[in-house]
Structures are given as structure tokens and as C-alpha cells.
Write a structure and sequence with these properties.
Blueprint: E1 14-16, H1 21-29, E2 37-45, H2 47-59, H3 67-81, E3 87-90, E4 93-97, E5 102-107, E6 116-121, H4 129-143, H5 152-161, H6 165-181, H7 186-189, E7 198-202, E8 223-236, E9 242-255, H8 261-276
Parallel strand pairs: 5-7, 7-8
Antiparallel strand pairs: 1-4, 2-9, 3-4, 5-6, 8-9
Helix pairs in contact: 3-4, 3-8
């Protein structure tokens, strides 16, 4: 958690930032996050990442690390180094988050009628990809011990769903008003994916492509990422050679009001650099990548 002192207008999950006039006006002129979506669909080369994983899992077979674990760590390092990617807009104001947070959904069973569990994690500055993998594996294992929600935001949602519809709609209206002003009780927002830095959907685990996924007006999430299946593809290398590489589809829906295309493009370049140099994921989250943005 940042030690930055809270001022008037700051929220529990972020502090208000001063931005150029264009961004300030856009935040008020286009108040709905869903009206300001920018979708990016990219094919990322994970050949070096797969080689790195093969060596990693051979040396440490107790916890089998996956591409998903590495993507989470790479995204965390990207957000840590590119702080505008960790901003959000609510109530017409722009905020910088105190923490980097991730959320994703895990099915309790791979069946049509299985319930879903909401996962939420906040990596620490000292975390490496090994710490991230252990945390994700542990949380998913705990969630799959039961067929039904056993606490947290899942249980809260079940309680809301059990209410009479008029009462539920009235309470949701109150919650949305509190959300606008950033004064929702912590027991409502804690563990809610709509309040995460990045909401991830690992569609490759169910053999689906990285499709577009919308943002939500409720909450503060400004970046939704989808991950598709890994496949072989012929790629034209920088030296002009054609080579068969391992490729993963990557989709990202971003609130365009938090930055600009130039900043987003450079953030994507950093992500590609981390995939090409996966040994950097073994370094703590706070360690700089030393990537040359030129």
C-alpha cells in the first residue's frame, strides 16, 4: 500500500490526480466507461516463454507453472512500470490506484452447470513469478474444494440474489450512488473484480479465442484482458526469415480516458519485451525492466 497521504477528494482505493484539460473534460463529457472503450487484439510470441516454462517446471515440479501465471506477472510488471495503466475514472474525476490488483474467474468444475468463483489478488513489490504461481494455484485449489460459494464476494452475491427483486434493485441503486462518490463500504468492494486494476479471462483454458470483452460502468476497472489459445504460426522475423513460432492471442479492452494511444502502444511493447525475456519474471515486481522505449 502506498504511503501517500490522503487529501480531500481522494478515495480509499486511489488518489485524485491532476491531468491535462482534455482528459478532465472527457471524464465529464463521457462519464460512462463503456462509451470510451478501446479494444486491442494482438498476437504475442510466447516461444521463449514456453522454453522458460519447460526448464522452470523441470527444476521445480511441485507447483506446475503455466503461461497464465507468467502473463499475470508480466502484466503486473507492466502496470508497475507504466502507472497510467493503473488509473481509473469515477464520479467525473481521475484517480491513481494505491495498489496493483488482479481478478479472474475460476470454474469450480468443468461442466455446464458448475458455479464460478471470483479470484482477487494483490501482488507485493517483493513478489516474483514463483510467488504469483503459488498464490494462484492455492486460491484456485481452495475454491474448487466446494461446489458452492463459501465466503467473500461470491457469498455476498448469493445473498443479494435471494432477496425480493424490488428490495434488491433498491439496494443496488444505493450501492451505485455510493460507488459514484467512492464511499461504498469495504465489505462490498473487497474482492470484487469490478474494483481491480486488471480483470483477466483465460479463455485459452477452455479452447476459446481472445474475444472482445466489455468494461463495466460500475466499479473502477479500466482494463479487461482476454487470453486465447496457444498455437503454431509462421512469423516473419526481423532479419527477414520466416519461422514457425508459438503464438497466443491477446485481447485488451481499455478505458481510453486514462491515457493515449502512444502510451498504450509503449505499454504493449514492454509486455512483448517481457515475453521475449522471461527471466525478468524471476526478479521482484519492483525491479525495473530496463527496457529501451526508443
Amino acid at each position: 500500500m502506498s504511503e501517500k497521504r490522503r487529501k480531500w477528494g481522494d478515495r480509499r482505493d486511489g488518489y485524485k490526480v491532476k491531468v491535462p484539460g482534455l482528459q478532465t473534460v472527457m471524464a465529464c463529457l463521457m462519464p460512462n466507461r463503456t462509451d470510451c472503450e478501446c479494444f486491442l487484439n494482438e498476437k504475442l510470441d510466447v516461444t521463449e516463454l514456453l522454453r522458460y516454462l519447460e526448464e522452470k517446471n523441470r527444476a521445480n515440479p511441485e507447483i506446475r507453472m503455466t503461461v497464465f501465471h507468467c502473463i499475470v506477472m508480466a502484466l503486473a510488471k507492466m502496470v508497475r512500470e507504466r502507472p497510467l495503466m493503473n488509473r481509473f475514472i469515477q464520479g467525473g474525476s481521475i484517480y491513481q490506484r494505491y495498489e496493483i490488483s488482479f481478478a479472474f474467474v475460476a470454474r469450480r468444475r468443468f461442466t455446464d452447470h458448475s458455479e464460478e468463483a471470483l479470484m482477487f489478488m494483490v501482488p507485493k513489490d517483493t513478489d516474483t513469478v514463483d510467488d504469483i504461481a503459488r498464490q494462484i494455484v492455492g486460491e484456485v485449489h481452495e475454491a474448487r474444494k466446494s461446489e458452492h460459494a463459501t465466503g467473500g464476494v461470491d457469498e455476498l452475491l448469493d445473498r443479494f440474489a435471494a432477496m425480493p427483486k424490488p428490495l434488491m434493485m433498491f439496494l443496488i441503486w444505493i450501492i451505485r450512488c455510493l460507488d459514484f462518490w467512492g464511499i461504498n463500504p469495504e465489505f462490498i468492494t473487497e474482492g470484487d473484480p469490478n474494483y481491480s486494476s486488471i480483470f483477466l479471462s483465460n479463455l485459452g483454458s477452455i479452447r476459446c479465442p481472445a474475444v472482445y470483452h466489455h468494461l463495466n460502468n460500475y466499479g473502477t476497472n479500466s482494463l479487461m484482458v482476454t487470453i486465447g489459445t496457444i498455437h503454431k504460426e509462421k512469423v516473419l522475423m526481423e532479419d527477414g526469415r520466416e519461422e514457425i513460432r508459438d503464438i497466443v492471442e491477446f485481447g485488451a479492452t481499455i478505458d481510453e480516458r486514462i491515457g493515449d494511444g502512444f502510451y498504450f502502444a509503449r505499454s504493449l511493447k514492454l509486455l512483448k519485451y517481457l515475453f521475449a525475456n522471461p527471466a525478468l519474471l524471476d526478479e521482484p515486481l519492483s525491479s525495473p525492466s530496463n527496457f529501451d522505449y526508443q
